[in-house]
Amino acid sequence: MTPKKNEIVTLEITDIGSGGEGIGRADGFTLFVKGAVVGDVIEVRVLKAKKTYGYAKIERLLRPSANRVESVCPVAGRCGGCQLQQMSYEAQLCWKERKVKECLERIGGVEFEANRVVLPIMGMDEPFAYRNKAQFPVGKDKDGRIVTGFYAGHSHALIPSDFCAIQAPVNEVICRTVCNHMERYRIAPYDEETHTGLVRYILTRIGAATGEVLVCLIVNGKSLPRAEVLAERLKTAVGMFCCGETGNASGNEKTCDEANKADESGNRSCGKSEGEVKAGLTLKGVCLNVNCEITNVILGAEIIPVWGDTYITDYIGEVAYRISPLSFYQVNPKQTKVLYRKALEFAGLTGNEIVWDLYCGIGTISLFLAAKAKRVYGVEIVPQAIEDAKENAVRNGITNAEFFVGAAEDVLPAKYRESGGSMRADVIVVDPPRKGCDERLLQTIVNMKPQRVVYVSCDPATLARDVKYLAGNGYTLVKAQPVDMFPMTEHVETVVLMSRRTK
Ligand code: SAH
Questions:
Q1: Would you state the pLDDT for residue 491?
Q2: Which of 103, 216, 242, 458 is catalytic?
Q3: Secondary structure letter of residue 419 according to DSSP
Q4: Which of 114, 156, 372, 452 sits between 20 and 30 A of 181, alpha carbons compared?
Q5: Are 246 and 269 within 8 A, CB to CB?
Q6: Are the CB atoms for 408 and 437 separated by under 8 Å?
Q7: What pLDDT digit, counting tens, does each position of 375-420 carry?
Q8: Cβ neighbour number for residue 352 with a 10 Å cutoff
Q9: Is the pLDDT higher at 223 or at 268?
Q10: In b/e form, how buried is each residue of 423-462, taking b as 16+ CB within 10 angstroms?
Q11: What pLDDT sits at residue 154?
């Protein structure tokens, strides 16, 4: 029987949808319930009802699931960032591993034993405060105060909050310092509806291995009133945060290294509260990013320096990377190392191989593999990222890596055609965005006949689709390694090894 909108229904959650929402059935009718955990018995209110399924929200928890835990964030249910905080981390990992298996079986349609091919997921020991990049929308709360916060799921409604359990704690201090500066100099936050106001977002990037911090304000304009004053205040605030102080900035400019030496025991001293951050924190730069468009896209193209550098440096393993606000860089540094090591292992390099790294970003995987390969070629669509990649190669003294700007599905086929089909690759690595690889690219990969394809994926469904294509064109799925890059969220990363079948 189809329930009506606003009807109260009692159900047990028996499954999880692909977006992490709980699924329960009442009289054969399927309801999707945000924030519900498998095993919960709940009373829900129906929000929307179609013919055979609908959406509902939790009204009352009658019997909580054994896998239900208290959310760490006060705004967990409303903020759109984390979908799984109410589920124990163990249960999250189980679900993610199962999701990868199910996609490969159902969509991949490959005949294999999923349990043998899909390796146990690699999770984190401490699944909080892992992110090295944050983007906070700036707005006003109901009392008209300038605040930062997070968007509610699937909307641009601002939920004010200083705290985020998966972000670096220093961001709280940075956001507060920017908001105070805006109040003091009467700088208006950007208003999407009227396209007025100045400050749209605060973006921060932190180098986990170096402790370098970059603050970038995304503005609907070309300048920020008294920007140099803000930079000074941010320097002080980051320094004081490291000393374990959170009070008013008072000109204390101790760097984090000094702070760590001075205070071995403080809970908030760097290296303890920052998860992976080993060094102390130092503000490396403050900059503006110009975005005057009416758009949902966060960043514009132009960066204006205010103070210091417009990039930070970070290390993954031995390789140093320059990261600017515009370039893609994996957000979970600890797990990135795990992921890249797997990619390297799957690539099976001996030093003689020609490797193509498609969707290479700032050359992270390319340079990570370069030491073990004869030559690495990277392809990436964002020109700034390729500039960073080239710079990164020089900086690390890597001379066997070359980079090309363009869409992978244009560049690789064109180069292969130009070579008259003689261009060779032993290993091809792909790391596409969620939509997966374009078929033109997959076709060229098949034509080039590399021994191994290493597929790094952030979406098991499109991964499975592309695995199916490759499996139908001479490749065998050898191994799939899920890695939890995004604890508390619905997302899961997978590295897959596909090997060319010999007749
Ligand atoms: N391998 C890198 C980046 C992966 S993210 C890393 O681990 O850091 C995916 C990258 O693909 C992004 O940098 C994005 O800009 C790029 N991209 C998106 N579409 C593309 C396309 N059609 N061709 C090439 N690169 C593309």
A1: 95
A2: 458
A3: T
A4: 156
A5: no
A6: yes
A7: 999 999 999 889 989 999 999 999 999 999 999 999 999 999 999 9
A8: 10
A9: 223
A10: bebbbbbbbbeeebbbeebbbbbbebebbbbbbbbbbbbb
A11: 78
Query: Ligand 1 pocket check: which of 355, 367, 368, 380 to mutate, most ligand atoms within 8 Å of Cβ?
Result: 380
What is the atom index within ligand 1 of the atom nearest the CA of 382? 15
Both tokens of 324, joined, read 């600017």
Whether the per-residue pLDDT at 436 is higher than 60: the answer is yes
What angle is formed at CA 208 by the lines to CA 179 and CA 484, rounded to 5 degrees?
Answer: 100
Q: Does the beta carbon of 37 sit less than 6 angstroms from any atom of ligand 1?
A: no
Q: What percent of the chain has pLDDT over 90?
A: 80
Q: State whether the beta carbon of 386 lies less than 6 angstroms from ligand 1.
A: no
Establish whether residue 361 lines the binding site of ligand 1, counting it when its CB lies within 6 angstroms of any ligand atom: yes
C-alpha torsion sign, points 345, 347, 348, 354: negative
What type of residue is 444? Answer: T
DSSP letters along 216-274, please? EEEESSS--TTHHHHHHHHHHHHHHHHTT--S---S----HHHHHHH-SS-TTSTTTTT
Q: Are the CB atoms for 159 and 167 separated by under 8 Å?
A: no
Beta pairing class for 212-219 and 282-290:
parallel
- At residue 243, the pLDDT reads 63
Active-site residue flag, 458:
yes
What's the pLDDT at 244?
58
Sheet holding 354-358, edge to edge: 401-405, 375-380, 354-358, 427-430, 452-457, 493-500, 475-483
- How many CA atoms within 13 Å lie on the side-chain side of 373? 28
Residue 450, pLDDT > 80, answer yes
The alpha carbon of 340 and the centre of ligand 1 are apart by a number of angstroms equal to 15
pLDDT tens for each residue of 9-24:
999 999 998 888 999 9
Instruction: Kindly state the tokens that stand for 304.
Output: 């204006």
Question: Checking phi first, is residue 195 left (phi over 0); if not, alpha (psi -120 to 50) or beta?
Answer: left
Cα 332 to ligand 1 centroid, rounded to whole Å: 16
